[in-house]
Description:
Elements: H1 4-22, H2 42-56, H3 62-90, E1 106-112, E2 114-119, E3 124-129, H4 138-141, H5 150-155, E4 164-169, E5 182-185, E6 187-188, E7 199-203, E8 215-221, E9 228-235, E10 238-243, E11 250-255, E12 260-268, E13 276-281, E14 285-286, E15 292-300, H6 309-317, E16 323-332, E17 344-354, E18 357-362, E19 368-373, E20 378-383, H7 400-409, E21 416-422, E22 426-432, E23 439-444, H8 447-455, E24 464-471, H9 474-484, E25 505-513, E26 521-527, E27 532-537, E28 541-547, H10 551-570
Parallel strand pairs: 6-12
Antiparallel strand pairs: 1-28, 2-3, 3-4, 4-5, 7-8, 8-9, 9-12, 10-11, 13-15, 14-15, 15-16, 16-17, 18-19, 19-20, 20-21, 22-23, 23-24, 24-25, 26-27, 27-28
Amino acid sequence: MSDAAPSGGATGLKSRHAARSSSPAPPKPSTYEFAPSKGKSVRGQAHAAALHQQQFEPLMPVPLLRHKGWLVVAAIACALFAFAVHITRSGNLLLTLRPHHFEHCRIVKGPVGAEDIALDPRGVAFVSSDARQWVPQMGRDGFFTTSAKIPSLMAAVSLDEQGALYAYDARPAGESTTAGTMTRLEIEGLPPSVTDMHPHGIHIPRSSGSPAERTWLYVLNHQRDGDRVLVLEVEHKTVSVRVPGASGSKSESAPLWPPRLVFRGLISGGEAFTAINDLVSLYPLEQENGSTLHSMYISNFLGSRLGDLGWNVVETFLHRPWGSVALCQARLPAEGAAASGILESNCTVAIGHLVSPNGLALSLDQRNLYVAQTLTHELNVFELPNPAASAPTSPAAPGADERSWVHGSLRLLPLRRLGSQHLATAVDNLDQDPLTGDLFIGAHPKLLDTLAHQEEPTKHRAPTQVLRLRRRTEEERSASSASSGGAKGRGMRRGMSGAAASSPFAVREVHLSSGEAFSGSSVGVWSRRSKELLIGGVSDDGIYVCPYEGEESDRKQERAQAQEGEQDGQQ
Length: 571
C-alpha cells in the first residue's frame, strides 16, 4: 500500500495538470474590461476596477450615438433652412416687380455713385459722389480683412478717382440760363488735414428762407485717418446785368454759376463714429459772442468698424442690432476754425441697438426724428426731448428763440420711440418736402441685386424705386382703424400704395423701374420749382431726372393702375 499510494497521487496530479493545460486560455481584457494586477489586495483590485469602469465605460450605447449624430445633422439643416428663408424675405427674392416709371426721363452725367442729394432754398441740388473703390470687398481683400487696410486702399486711389461734390441747377429754364447744368465743385480753403475726399451722406438744414440767412452744407467724409463731418457754407454770387424793357433797359441781378463752397470746419466723432452713413441737422444757432452752434444726428449703419469684413458680414446677414444714431454738437468760433480745421465738439450715442440705421430726417416741427432701417425694411419714428411742458409751438420755420430751445434740449437722452412702419423694401436715404413734410425715400426692392450691382455695375443691374410717405394724423388713423376693424398690416409688396390701419404713414410708390436705364436708387428728391424728381444711385454715372408734378402725377398713376387692374380682371 505504501508503494501504491505515491503512484496513485502522482497520476492524479498529472491528470489535473493535463486538464488545466488543455483548457482554453482566458480571453484578453477588452477595451471596457478590467484586468486585475498582481500584488494588490481584493479591496484594492475592486476599487481599481470601479475606476476603470467609470473611465472606459461608454456614456450611452452605440445606437444612441448614431441617433445623436442624425439630430445634429437635422439641427444644422433646420438652421440653414431658416437662414435661407431669412435671406429670401429680407432680399425679396420671390418678389415680382410691376414697373410703372415716368416717361421722358433723362440721365445727367457727371457724378459717379451719386449716393445722396440735397436741395437748397434757391433750387440748386448738391450731389455727393464717390465710386467707393476704397471700400474693402470680400472677393478682392478676403474675409478676414480689417479696417486697418482702409488707409492703404484710400492711398491707392488717385486724385482723379476720388469722390467729389457736384451742383445741379434744378431751377426751371425760365428762372435760370444754366438750368439742367451739372458742375463739379471745388471746396475753397480746405486744410491739409483733409487728405481724402470720399463724401457719403449730405444735408442742408432748413432755414426761414430769409435772404440774409446763410446756407450751410454738411458732408459726411471718409478719410484714412478717420471719418469726419465737413462744415461748408454755400455762397451764391450775383452779377448786375442790363435787361431791355418797354421803357428802356434796367439793371437786374443774375446769379453766377456755379455756387461757391467755402470750408468752415471739421467735426470728429471719435468712438461715436463706426460706419457713418447719413445725417440730418438743425439750422445753426448764432450766439451772442458771434459763434455758431451746429447740432446734428448721424447714423452708423454698422456697429462694427467699416472694413472689418468678418464682423460686417455677420452683422449684415444676421441682422444684428449693433447700429446706432449719434448726436453731435460743435461750436464754430466767430473768428473761424483753427488751422487744423477741427472744431470743438461733443458726440455721443443718442439711439442704440438698431439694425442697419440709414437715412435720417426731421419732422417740420422738429419734434420727431425719422430713422430708416435698410435690412429690416422699417421706418422708425422717435420723439425728440421736451424739457418744458410750456414749450412754444414750432412754426413752419422756427425763429431764434425756438432754435435756442431745440438746440439746448437735444442733450436730454434717450429718445423715445413712437412707432415704426414696415415698407417691404430696403429703404435708403430720406428727403423731405419743405412745404408738406412728405418723405421721399430711395429704396432697393431687391437688395441682393443691388449688392451685386455695387460689385460689378455694368454686369449686374438693380431695380430703381422711390416712395412718397405722408404722415397721417391721429384722426385719420382712428378712422381707418374703425373702418378696417383694427386690422394691422406690414406694407404692400406689389403696389406699395395705401397704408394699414395703424400705420403712421400713407405710402405711395411714385417710381419703379427694372434698372436697365438707371440702377440702384439710393435717394429721391423732388424739386417743386422745376417739377422734377431727382434720383441718385449707388454706382451708376450721373443722376436720373424724371418729370414729376406731385399729386397730379400720383392721380394719373392711380388711374393707370386701375385700368391695368380692370384689364387683368377681364383676362
